[in-house]
């Protein structure tokens, strides 16, 4: 089994707010992340694909295909977006790093030209990341 990882960088803003909680509860739980005007991050996403090396091509998958998929499913919908206002799924979900990684997974699964989606790793800052390894 071989694992390929492709990395992409993008920027987005968000805020954390649960409408089922009071304003005070939201401030206490989410702190600065509850600012209704939002705040931004420079994100790094790493997508890992696993599979066997095809004897004909010598590849698990063509990395151009993975790059194009990342551009279509991650960069175009998320780069320079206010997640709470511009990305439909975050109308109902809090755009935490965990929920964001899961959303990226859901957008990529079943769309690979070869190999199997193994991991989505999303860095929100240089010292925080979330790994999602599937269901």
Please name the defining characteristics of this protein.
5-stranded mixed β-sheet, 4 helices, elongated, 135 residues, Tetrahydropterin Synthase, Chain A, alpha+beta
Structural description of this entry:
The protein has 135 residues and is α+β, with helices and mostly antiparallel strands. The chain has a single domain (2-132), classed as 6-pyruvoyl tetrahydropterin synthase/QueD (Tetrahydropterin Synthase, Chain A). It contains 4 helices and 5 strands; from the N terminus they run E-H-E-H-E-H-H-E-E. Strands 3-1-2-4-5 form a 5-stranded mixed sheet. A hairpin with a 2-residue loop joins strand 4 (116-125) and strand 5. The protein starts with a strand and ends with a strand. The model has no long low-confidence stretch (mean pLDDT 93).
């Amino acid at each position: 089994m071989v694992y390929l990882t492709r990395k992409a960088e993008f920027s987005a803003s968000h805020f954390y707010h649960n409408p089922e909680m009071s304003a005070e509860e939201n401030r206490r739980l989410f702190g600065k992340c509850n600012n209704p005007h939002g705040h931004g991050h420079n994100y790094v996403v790493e997508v890992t694909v696993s599979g066997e090396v095809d004897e004909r091509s010598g590849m698990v998958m063509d990395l151009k295909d993975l790059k194009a998929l990342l551009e279509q499913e991650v960069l175009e919908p998320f780069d320079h977006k206010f997640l709470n206002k511009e990305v439909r799924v975050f109308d109902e979900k809090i755009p935490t790093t965990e929920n964001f990684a899961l959303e990226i997974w859901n957008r990529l699964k079943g769309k690979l030209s070869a190999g199997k989606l193994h991991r989505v790793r999303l860095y929100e800052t240089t010292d925080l990341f979330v790994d999602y390894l599937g269901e």
